[in-house]
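This part of the workshop introduces the protein records we will be handling. A record pairs a protein's sequence with a compact description of its fold. Backbone structure tokens are a discrete shorthand for how the chain folds in space. The question running through the whole workshop is how a given chain folds. The record below serves as our worked example for the rest of this section.
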Amino acid sequence: MAKETKLLKDKETKKLGGTKTKSLPKDETKKLSVSPTRAKKIKHSYNVKDAENALVLKLKDGDVVIEMYPDVAPNHVDRIKELVRAGFYNGLKFHRVIDGFMAQTGCPYGTGTGGSGKKLKAEFNKMPHKRGTVSMARSMMPDSADSQFFICFADCDWLNGQYTVWGEVTSGMEFVDMIKKGDGANGAVNNPDEIISIDVIADL
């Protein structure tokens, strides 16, 4: 653990607060806003391997497709889909963005201190942290991941095996690159960009 602390100095993830959470409306799911025919065309336009395990993340500059890894991080993928379908991530800020490293989001308070209120047991795996990797943020405790995640701008080998990788950007990485970077302490962003929406592609 001492090695991890040294590796992540000035890059460590924000600790997830145990009491600050965003309530999930019970049984709430995303509603279709387009006709079924149009929705079917939209769904197929993303050209993903498995629409049930793929997300479309809408940013200010364009759509980002994330294909998830249910085979290596099944519990994380299930929880992410649950949060997505409840609308949890819509409107949340990219509160911590470090140029050349990663963009972090998923805190309902935009500070890096909050979560959904459900911590996940780590599912560390052999998937590398490379450009486009989507991985869970956590505190120094391995089983503390909640709702916060980050997208790598570049290869980050020093994170391998220490954070749960659950997906990869397969389209639209150029729009991730355009997320506003932080210039504050530990990558804090002034007037940060927001997630417009995230949807499971199978639901479109």
Remarks:
- The chain has a mean pLDDT of 87.
- The chain has one domain: 2-19+32-203.
